[in-house]
Structures are given as structure tokens and as C-alpha cells.
Design goal:
Layout: H1 2-15, H2 17-28, H3 41-58, H4 65-79, H5 81-92, H6 105-125, H7 129-140
């Protein structure tokens, strides 16, 4: 179920990244209405969605550079989120110096790190617990 939910999120992020970016801005920024998004930010969001879909849909367990990169980003976001918050704001916003972060931006970034780690973990297992139960049930029938 979680795998399917994350794949659906990835597909939505590929198809319509602006609502995802808007939601992140509302969560993270005090002055989200002043944010001047750079043109490539939409492509970055699409790339994130594509990575989720690719890793989760392929159901292979070998480590790839993509898995390693996403896992490393997840660990950094969980334990020291501020450098990634700062760098992502510099990359995404033309006026990053003018933006004011909300107090819960660090916990939100940590949560995103956990999501990245869950995506990697699910891509390593190839199945979810409910998928393996379905497979066992199909074999017995």
C-alpha cells in the first residue's frame, strides 16, 4: 500500500509539480507569496518524482547510484537538515536571501529525509508485506 501511495505521489509530482512546490512553500516559508521560483525548480520536482517511481516500480534489490544518492540525502536530511535546506533554497529561489523559514522547516525536512529512506528501503525489498501475503495466497490457490 505504501509503495503504491509513493508511486502515485511520484506520478503526480511528474505530471503537476507546481502544486507540490506550492505546498512545500506554504509549509516552509513565512513569506511564500514573495518567493521567486527559478525555472528549473519544476524540473527538479519532476526528477524527484521520477526517481520515486523508477525505484519503487522496478522492484529490484540491487544498489544503484540513484539508491545510494537518495539514501545519502535522506540520512543528511534526517540528521543535519540545515545545509540541504539552505542549498535547496539557493537552487530553487532567485530571492533566497529574502525568504523567511517557518520554525517547523527542519522537522519537515527531516520528515522528507525519512520519506527518502523509506523509498530506498522499499526499493531494496522489492515487495511490501501485503504484497508478499498476496503472492503467498496466490500460490496456494
Amino acid at each position: 500500500m505504501l509503495r503504491r501511495l509513493l508511486i502515485a505521489f511520484g506520478i503526480a509530482e511528474i505530471a503537476k509539480p507546481q502544486p507540490v512546490i506550492d505546498a512545500c512553500e506554504r509549509i516552509a516559508l513565512e513569506n511564500a507569496e514573495d518567493a521567486q521560483i527559478r525555472p528549473w525548480a519544476l524540473w527538479g520536482a519532476r526528477l524527484e518524482g521520477a526517481l520515486f517511481v523508477w525505484l519503487l516500480a522496478r522492484r529490484k534489490s540491487e544498489w544503484t547510484p540513484t539508491c545510494v544518492l537518495l539514501a545519502a540525502a535522506g540520512v543528511v536530511l534526517v540528521f543535519v537538515p540545515q545545509p540541504i535546506i539552505n542549498q535547496s533554497q539557493r537552487l530553487v529561489y532567485a530571492n533566497h536571501d529574502e525568504l523567511q523559514s517557518k520554525p517547523w522547516v527542519k522537522p519537515a525536512a527531516r520528515l522528507l529525509g525519512v520519506v527518502y529512506l523509506v523509498v530506498v528501503a522499499l526499493s531494496k525489498t522489492g515487495t511490501e508485506p501485503d504484497d508478499s501475503a498476496d503472492a503467498a495466497g496466490d500460490g496456494a490457490a
